[in-house]
Predict the structure.
Amino acid sequence: MKKTGMKLACTGIALALLTLGSSQSTFAEKQGIQKKPFANTLAVAKTEQFSKTDNPISIGVPITVPSTKPTVVKVLNKEQFGNAKPPVKSEVKLPSDKWGKVILTITGTQKGRQYDRLFQIWAGSSQIFVGVTPEPTKDGIEWKIQKDVTEYLPVLQGKQVLTTKLENYVNDTYTGIPEMSIQLEYYPEEKGKKNKQADPLKIKTPDKIIPITKDAAPFYMYEKNSSMDVPLDLPKDIKGAYLDLYAVPQNNDEFWWSLQPDFREIEVYIDGQPAGAVWPEPTLYTGGVNPYLWRPIQGIHTLDMTAYRVNLTPFAGLLGGKHTLSIKVNQHIDYWLMSGSLFLYQNNRKPTTGKIVKNTLTFPTESDKTKTDLFGNDNNLFGENANKSYEIQGVIDAKGEHYTSTIQASRNNTSDQTNYNEGGVQIVHNAQVVTMDESFAKKGQKASTKHTEEVYTLDCGSGYMPTQDGSSFLLPSNLTQSLHVYNVLNGPEWKSPYESTLYLNTQGYASLYRSKSDTAQGATTAVVDFKDSNEQSYHQVLMSHGGIVTYNLELGSLSKKGK
């Protein structure tokens, strides 16, 4: 995104330098797993750091690719997105058979100088992908993203128009032109695995997908109290429903976690009744705070921004016919982009009815704010805290069958800021804890349950230090980002509960001296830990110095092939 008013890009930062020490893993059961160090392990970076960088790396658990031969559909082939290029519409014929998995593969190349740009894909009017392009170098970069899009199969069959949007602006200074390729890979089910779900955490592919935008374009939520109101006309046999929501902060709200106030809440309503809440997690774009933090290791969920999933199943028996879905963002500044779809699970054309028997969710959530002035002129200590607990329970009746859907949630958000020198120095701490219990029970049967605990933290410090004549400035920055997720699934389909744990962490330091001849230095570490009760595991430690990967260790049954 083009930065208009660089205050936040230069002040969401800190003076404290990050010392990169050794990472100690709690990853268990390493016995018998071969270590796979990078060829240049612990290599010393060149004196002139960032003179050349490795290709961008997105941390996370690798996608499991089936052993079956895929049917491949090419959507874009080396499409260049130059100055103000309009969205590209690709008319494709997609296979309509049953598939075990569908993978979206995106590859990109770019060289020169350019801002980070949003890259978005729609199938029909349903958004299926949004991410941020890496900022290129003069020598050029290449990157690859893979996403499991099996959940989107209802809109990835037959004749379809896939729309790709990348708003880029090119001039004599910003010369980078991304060249993008996209393909869809349809994998048949593997023998013996038809009834075994490879990834239990992914919800079952819905029967029907209803977009919440009329066209292949996001809704722009500008005004402070604006509302995205979506008229719906839905089938009358709904037994389950989820909102698949892409919510992307833009302009000043890109750095909402460093503003005052710094708490955001996405409110979801059905016919004016509170139906779900999302407390978004900060996404660090590839030019955010200091672009040298992200060369080559990217932030969490930056290249592939995940959709927020809101369980609306308690309302399922009420959703048939005409209704209004409304979405708001509490306390936002400037604008957010909203897009996504409703995932519907149907009852084989047998009408359903229902009611909400309990709903303690209310909006807006009021946050407690404290502010202490230091020396005047925007020098202050600022704190903000928000807490919310609620329960929603609904019943669904389907011609003699009776279901109960219950959601219990607890959320806590806390943040602290130190601002000095009129915003020239800023230290930010942001932490969020979300606990969610979801259950779905058919009368007379054991309930299916999901318990989730998610903890996100962000610690960022930076300083903006201009020379006396204002011709140059120093931008020292450090940033730590972490995500912990614990899941437990249980139900009639499980012999025993399924458990999984995920830990993602990046720590980066960078210092940029912007002058006639820029000078930069920096280093980043990243750690990935994943383990589940199906004996699947993955562990990775990545280190980079001056834009070059110096260490890459991968362990576990899901480790990438060929490393």
In short: Confidence is low (pLDDT under 50) at residues 1-46. Residues 7-11 form the longest helix (5 residues).
